[in-house]
Amino acid sequence: MATATTARTYVDFVPPHSLREEPDKVALRVDLSAEGFRKEQIRVQIDNFGRLRIAGERPLDADGSRWRRFHKEFQVPETCDAAAIRARLDKDGILLITMPKLSAAAAAAEEPKAPGADMGGDAAAGQDHEPAGHASAQQAGTAAEEEKGQEEEDAGAAMDRPGQDDKHHTSSDNAAAAPAARQPAAYGFAKDRRRMLLAIFAVMLALVGAGLLARYRLTMDQSAETAPSGNSIVSLSDS
């Protein structure tokens, strides 16, 4: 004999609810007093993204053809401890969900840290850190300016000396001074080469710092995207 299956017809409703914040917790109150629900007919779940789902359904007649149901979602505040959420249905049919707040130390630990927050002791003292490549570029620029100033002073001193001793120079002195006159050019070339190497080194440091920062951000984004989406059930208790 074939058994006839009764099709269900659902009657949806939205229960009255209120959210109240207290110094140590956030309380969500859902009024089911006029609906006649029992605790085994109500389901409270929370997912890994902090969404609180409340649903319930019960039959309206003996043959189970008509059912009464509801469904609501709430976002758990970031200041609350999702693992410590409790739910209970009192004797008057009021569903009370308690979301305890995090302590000050736990809230600070939950806050995401900015990249580089743990690099060096100056951050703890409230000083700003600059990327390593940027700091090296500034140091290279300062060193280049100092070398340029020193080179200009040397060139000025070299120009002053011939004017003072023109009357006493002989042809042999001029021949001996010719190799010496070529030395500043060679010295300047060495300085230009050193400045070029410093600039290349500073650029390489800046690129390495930028690459590390980009890799850190990519890792954080991937870890957030691949978070498991399982639901945890909050058990209901009687008042």
TrEMBL record:
Gene3D superfamilies: 2.60.40.790. It holds the Pfam family HSP20. GO terms for cellular component: plasma membrane. This is SHSP domain-containing protein. Residues 8-117 form the SHSP domain. The keyword Endoplasmic reticulum does not apply. Belongs to the small heat shock protein (HSP20) family. Residues 162-171 have a biased composition (Basic and acidic residues). Residues 108-126, 133-143, 175-184 have a biased composition (Low complexity). It is a single-pass membrane protein. InterPro entries: A-crystallin/Hsp20_dom, HSP20-like_chaperone. It is found in: Cell membrane. It comes from Panicum hallii var. hallii. One of its GO terms (biological process) is defense response. Residues 108-184 are annotated as: Disordered. The chain crosses the membrane at residues 196-216. Keywords: Cell membrane, Membrane, Plant defense, Transmembrane, Transmembrane helix. Its main location: membrane.
